[in-house]
Structures are given as structure tokens and as C-alpha cells.
Amino acid sequence: MNVSILRRPAWVWYLGIGSLVTAMYMFVPPLKGNGPLINVLGLSGVVAIVVGIRMNKPRARLAWWLFAAGQFLFFSGDLYTYSYRLLFGADVGFPSAGDGLYLAVYPVLMAGLFVLVRRRNPKPDRSALIDALILTIGVGLLSWVFLIAPNVHLADLTWLEKGISVAYPLGDVLLLAAAIRLAVDTGKRTTAFWLFVSSIVCLLATDSAYNYALLKGTYQHSQLIYDAGWIFYYLLWGAAALHPSMRDLEEPAADPRTRLTPLRLSLLGAACLIAPGIRFWQELGNPDVLVLILGSAVLFLLVVSRMAGLVRQEGRVVSRERALRGAGIDLVAAAGREQVYAAAISGVDRLIDGESCVRVALVNADGASVVASSDGASWNLVPATADWLGRVRSGVLRLAHSDMPTLVGTDLRLTHGEAVAVLPLSVRSDVRGLLIVSTTARISPEVADSLDALGTQVSLALEGASLAEDLHRRQSEARFRSLVAHSSDLITVLDENGRVTYQSPSIERVLGYRADEVEGRRFDWLLSEQDRPRLDQLTSTDGSGAAEAHTIECSLTHRDGTLLRFEIQHTDLIHDEHVHGVVLNSRDVSERKAFEDQLQHQAFHDPVTNLANRALFSDRVEHALVRAQRGFADIAVMFIDLDDFKTVNDSLGHAAGDLVLQEVARRLKLAVRPTDTVARFGGDEFAVLLDGVADSSESADAASRILRSLESPLEIDGKQVFPRASMGIYLVDRQSEAPEAAELLRNADVAMYMAKRDSKGSYRVFEPAMHERVVERLELQSDLQHAIEFEQLELHYQPVVRLDGHEIIGVEALLRWQHPTRGNVTPAQFIPLAEDTGLIIPMGRWVLETACAEGVRLQNSFPRTAPLTMSVNLSVRQLQSDSIVADVRSALEKTGLPPTSLVLEITESVMMADTEFAVRRLDDLKALGVRLAMDDFGTGYSSLSYLSRFPVDILKMDRSFVGAGENVALQSAIIALGASLSLDVIAEGIELPEQEQSLQDLGCEIGQGFLFARPMGVDALVGFLAAHLEDTDVGVPPASNAA
Questions:
Q1: Among 266, 270, 289, 269, which residue's Cα sits nearest to residue 279?
Q2: Best CATH choice for the domain 605-766 from the list 3.30.40.10, 3.30.160.620, 3.30.70.270, 3.60.140.10
Q3: Other Cβ atoms closer than 10 A to 1043
Q4: For the residues of 57-70, what is the DSSP string, one character each?
Q5: What is the DSSP letter of 395?
Q6: What is the pTM of this model?
Q7: For residue 343, how many other CB atoms are within 10 A of its CB?
Q8: Domain segments of the chain: what residues?
Q9: What is the mean pLDDT of residues 591-611?
Q10: Which of 159, 260, 277, 853 sits at 20 to 30 Å (Cα–Cα) from 447?
Q11: Are 590 and 565 contacting, i.e. CB atoms less than 8 angstroms apart?
């Protein structure tokens, strides 16, 4: 089905379906003449009105609810009448209850109509009321003669039957009266209005025809045409309620004045002739009476015709007055001559009844004339036409086309048969234009008078426009003089020799000179010495007279000798009769230029050290490479990175860090030549460009000078800071092919990285192999990140035992990485890489959660009085992370491992980074309930004072001390230190029974190593524990795992 059909409004659907069902009621058996069907159609009208009220929400709801009530009464009468035969098997009698329901319809509908009339006409309208009475009385006479009087004179009817028979046509007449009052007002006539009126017409026409048929005895029940009329009364009223414009039926008209239009006058005349017409019909056999009736009717029609002429004449007068008033409003609102002419043309169009073409001929002071037409065309007049038109001085000249010279008619583009009116348009008593009107209609004296009045209004408007133009010109000149006098720009006029012929007064405020000091002198007197040759450029002209502006920048000298930068726009107006010179508009741009220089400096320099930044350094490297390729000199690029600068920032603050950077920048500039470039790339990275080095030894000497300059400490807030640095060097000689600047910087950075890795505080010269190692490191970093994301790492576990009896008391989690292509990657290879790149944080988080989860599983699988512990290593980078405490807490909470079962192992290097920070962080971890172990104890810089401040529980003796004989003293000292501090001591790396025995003799109680078990996977660990923890009193036999 077509979508557009489905989108039709509800009233169209209702009217269409209702018409289809009506056709079926009229013609299609067995629905033809079906009583229930007509009742359904009647009920649909009531429902449609109710739905329309709900859907459209009119403000005058009372009127529509009254209409719904009237329709329901009509439906109830139909229901009684059409159902009587079905219920009682006989025709309904007369009078009956149905007649009471039908007659009740009239007052209810009339009440609704009166509500609408009141809403549409807030103020009384006597003219509309009289018109409605005339039409109603005329129709009432017809009803009296043909319907009411015959029923009154029927002798065989009782008084009740006569009363009911008369009530129907009387009700129709009264309902018609209310409808006519609604129709003759000035309210909106929307679609709902016409549907509404059509419904009432259907009702009245059907009732009248039905009553007349009853009187004549011609009515039969099979005549369904009457039913069709009543059905459409239902449908049209319901459609009117469903139409959205039903809300506008109650809106009063914008112009409430009643106008006697030709249609209204015709209807009123016809209504007045109804009575004579009836009498004429009744006296057809009496010639004398017929003559009197016809004479009266003719006289009446003549009077009406005369009245119609007066009404039309009054209408034309009102129309001309309205046109003049509208033209006056347009002329008052006109802002210039062009709008005045447009308003005049529009006013003439409204004044002329027939087709017209309006021309406005404008006569300039020099005699030239131009014509503007109402159709938008414009053209120049030939002199002969202008002379002929110029003879019109006053009044309106009315003439025919034949009275005009042929040339004038042709030039004005007038056609034969036109009437022509020519109106002079004066400005200050001087005729400056003509309004020429050519029309197919006759120009009456009244129209000519109106045109004359319009011409007067146009002349006044033109004079006002002329005065406004003069005033505007004077104001513009005064404004221009004021702007020139107070402008911050200098306005100068030079002659062809460069002499100043005019100088604006603003020069005294800008440059300190009076205008008369400058006028008459050459302009180069103000120019700076280096810009004086540019005077010819300022005064140059191309001879074409084209006033094109060109801009240059020059420096002008202030009276105090200061040079100010100016942007000078020079325009060649030599051929302008009002100027006769070259106009210079000079604007002081000194502050702007200084700001631009400042911005440019900021764009290419580091704000902290005032050194060149990366952009400027890269640009200079590009230029140096070009010179090197041309064989002028070798170059060297140094990439410098401060060692441990983050420690300075973290411990002393960023302000102290900035002081260190500034001092390093100063030392770097002193260590190199003035022609070399020193730059800061950001953070703690610097770069140096040695342009024009003789050989590699010269760059090496420069690198040594730089490193020596950074050896001496600097003092900040009473603390000494040693700004050591690592440096990478890339050399470009004239014989080798120079790389791109980006590659050069990257290679120097690679060399610096190698220097920092091998030995901080040194330099390295780039070699191709370095790049390969860096690439390999980057690949390994990428693989490690992939392994962390996809959980390709795994944990192995090594048991921790009591040496006396070999009881297993816990396990240590050790990270392993089985690479899919590299094979086994040792922790010594990927742990430092993870530390440098920050991957140690997510990796450590995974280790914590996995180890804690495995610890819970082992404790559940092997319950003991003293639960098995789980040891996990923490790196310095992890401990410094802000999230480490939250990570440990999260791992314990997620897995449910008791905090006392988790041992966190840290190295001695934690104490050297930032002791105070390390103590606070370890206290925070200790507060979670976990145990802390000092791993690899004895290999670092531990002291008793450091150890006593750290909240550790366990010392893990490094495997390097677990030897035979020569390390006994160190073992004894560590064990004794642990005992004095009440710390457990665990010996790592026990591989031989002799080592175990020696440690037991010294008093060490706990150990781990290959002697007891190698690190193993989860499944192997579970099997190992199952085999050795069946009895808690049974330990690990050394002989079984010594291999």
C-alpha cells in the first residue's frame, strides 16, 4: 500500500470510509436500507466529535460538547425509529418518543452555535446580526409558505400532531438562523468551517425535503435518499471535529469590520425578493397584481444596484486611501533614494486598478537621465526624451499615447492604447525626476488626484532623503576629520617628489613632531638611515591611476632619536582630483614586532635554560649536514643525559632541579666553542652540535671537557649535588654519506644509552653494532610486554627448609620466562629491562596475585600447625611505585592468603636510594601484616644503623657467603647480627652437605638451595610436597635432591 495514503489525516479516513459504507447502505444488499447500519453511522458521528475534542483540544470545548450531545440525541432518535420495526414488528407511530429526541436536538445545537458565535465575535456586530436576520426571515418565509402553514391548516391532525409537525421546520429555521449568524461574521473560514456548514445544510435540506414529501404524500420508506442526507449530516459534522483547524473556528478575525461584498449584497437582495417572488407565484392568474409585484421588484433591484455602486465607489476610495497610507509608511521608512523610488513604484501599483507599468525617470543635475521600471529593468534616456520630460513642471499630466512624440513613447517603452500620467518629483522646488505611469485602464480624475498626492509624498521623501544625505555627508566628513586627528595611525600625503603635502596631527603624539614641521619636507627625513633608499618605493606609481594599496615595513625616527618600526600602506591617488598624491597610512608595530620576536625566541628556545630547543637544534643540524655534504667541514653531535637527575627532583624538589639544569647549561656553553650549538631536549637531556671539527679527536676532547666541567659539585640549599652525565657521540665526516638529521640524533642517543649502561659518567662514540643491540633490546621489550599482557610468564617455586630435620616451612616464588623462539630467557636478562621500562609494575602485580593464590592452594592442600609461607621478591622500582601498598592489599584480599603467610623480599639497594622514603614505604607494608626479608644481605652497603631502622623480620644471607672455610667469619657475623636483632636468618644457595653442616654449627636454622630442591613448576611442587609432607615430622632427605 502506498505510504502517502496511510499518512492521510484522520478526518479524510473517517469521511472516506463513512462515504463507502453509505454507498453500501444505499445500493448493496443485504446492507441496503439496513437499520442497524445507519445507527452505527450515526454513533460514529458522536464518537468522531468526542475524539476530535480529545485530539485537537479546542479552547471552546463547551460548544463541541454541546454538538456531541445534540448528535447523540439525533442518534438516539434514529436508534428508536429504525429499531422499532425490528423490536415490535410494526411501524413507529406519530407522534412518538423519537420525535421528542429529534426536537431536543435543535436547542442543544443552537446553544453550541451561539457559544461559537460569541467566541468569534467578542464585540457586538450589529451589521452581521441584521444581515443574518434578513437571510433568516427570507428563508423563514419559504418555510412558512411551503411547510409550516400547510401543517397548521391540516384538519385531520390533532393539536399535538400539528405542534410537532410545525416544530420540525421551525427548528430548522432557528438552527439556520444560528448557522447564518456564524457564517456572516468576519471570523476564519477554515476547512473545518466549510465541513461544519455543509453538515448543517445537509440536515436542513433533508428535513425540508422530507417534510414537503410528507405533506404531498409522496414519501415512501424505500426512498433512501433522505437517509443519505441525514448520514452525511453525521459524517460532515464528525469530519469537522476531527480536522485540526476546528481549533480556529473560535478565533476572532484580525479585522472585525463587516464589509458589504458583492456576494453578500446579492444574497441580501435575493432574500428580500423571496416574499415578492412567493406572491408572484401565488398570483400568476392576476395580471394587475403581477405588474405591481414586478415593478416593485425592479425598483428594488435598481436601488440595490445604486447602493452597490456607492459601496464600490466607497471601496475604491478606501482602497486608494489605504494605498496612499501604505505608500506613506514605506516612504517614511525609506533609508535612501533607491528605497524611495521602490516605495513610489509599489504605491502606484496599488493605486491603479488595471494592468500598469511604472517608470521613474531620474534627472541629474548635469541633465543625464535614467529610467527605472517596475519590472526591474533600467536604461538611459536619449536627450530628446529628457528634454520633453523636462518641460513638465507641476501637476499631473494626463495624456494618451497618441499625444506623446513617437521617440518619447519608444524610449519609455510604452505600447499603443495605454493611458499615460506624468508626475513631477521635486527636491527643494527643483524638478529632479518624473513618475511616469502607463496603464491599460482609464486614469480617472480621482486616480489622478491620488497620483498627485503620491507624487507630493514622494517629493517630500526625496527632499528628506536629500537632507539626510547632506547631513550624513557632513557627519562623515566631521567623523573622518576627528578620526584622522585622534587616530594612532599616521596619514601622510606625498607628492611625486616625495615631499609631504599633508600630515595628520597624530604625528605629534606618535613621533613627537608637529604636523607643520613635517609638511613641505621630504619624507625620507623621517626614515631611518638604512630605510631611506626605500622612499622611491613609497612614492612609485605605475601611471595607471589604479588605487591599489601596497604594504612595506620601515623604521621611522622619533624626535628623541628612538627608531620605531612602522607598517606603511601606500596607495597611489595621484590621479584622484581630491588628493593628487600618494597616501601613506603608517601604523606603529614596534610592540607587535617585539612580541613576535619574543614568540619566535620562545618557539625555538628552552624556557628553563634559554638554550636552543629540539626544533632549533634539528634545523641547525640540517644546515650543518648540508655544509658537510658540500665538503666544507666534519660535524659531531653529542647526546647528553644527566645521571640520577630524578633523585635530585624527588628529594630536593623541581625548583632545585631547575637550578641544576641551568647550571649544567652554563657549564656546557663554557665547555664548547661559541660557534657550537648547545640545546636542551627536555627533562634531563641535552645535545651539542660541533660544527666544523677537524677529526674524531677534537670531538673526544670536547666530550672530555664537558665531563670534566660537570665533575665539580654545586651547592643547593646547603646540599652538594654532583651533576654527572652520560654522553653519546655521532661523527659525520665529509667522505661518508651523511644520514638524515633524525637518524643522526637517534644514533647519538643510542651511543649515550650504551655509555649509561656500561659506566655512568662516561661517553661512547656510536658504532653500527650499538644500533643492533638497541634493536634487540627493543624487540625483547616488545616480547616482554606481550608476555605480560597474555600471561606467558610462569612462576617456579623453591622450598625453604629448617636445617635441623629438613622440615619444609615455605616456598619462594621465582619468575621464569619461556620465550616461544628465544627459549628460556633468564631473569638476569629481562628483570633489568622490566625495571628500566616500567613493565616491572604490571609484572610484579601479576606475580603477587599468582603467588598468593598458589599459597592459599598449598595451605588448603597441606594443612599444618604453622602454615606454609610464600616469599615474593620486590624490586626497588616496585617499592617506589605509589600503587605497591594497594597492590599487596588487593592480592591478599582477592586470594584470601593470611598476611602473616606472605614474605616480601627486598634488596639492600632500597636503603641507598632514599632512606626516609624507604622506611615510610616499608612501614606501610608492614602495617598490612606481612613479613619483610632483606635479600642478598651482606653484598651491599648495609650498616647496623640502617638495618635497625628498617622494619625487617628476616635476613637472607647471599649465596656468595655460603662457601667452605674462607667465608665462615662472614657467615658467623651475619648470623650473630640476626640473633642480636631478633631476626631470622635464611642461608641461600646451599648445594653441599658440608655447607649445611657448617651453617648448622654456626647456629643458622633455615636454608634453601639445590641440596634440598631446585625451583620447580606448580604441578611438580604439589607432587614434591605430597611426597615429603605426609607426616609433618618427616623432613626432606638431602640425598634425594642433591643432584
A1: 289
A2: 3.30.70.270
A3: 7
A4: --S-HHHHHHHHHH
A5: S
A6: 0.39
A7: 23
A8: 8-252, 334-472, 489-595, 605-766, 781-1029
A9: 84
A10: 260
A11: yes
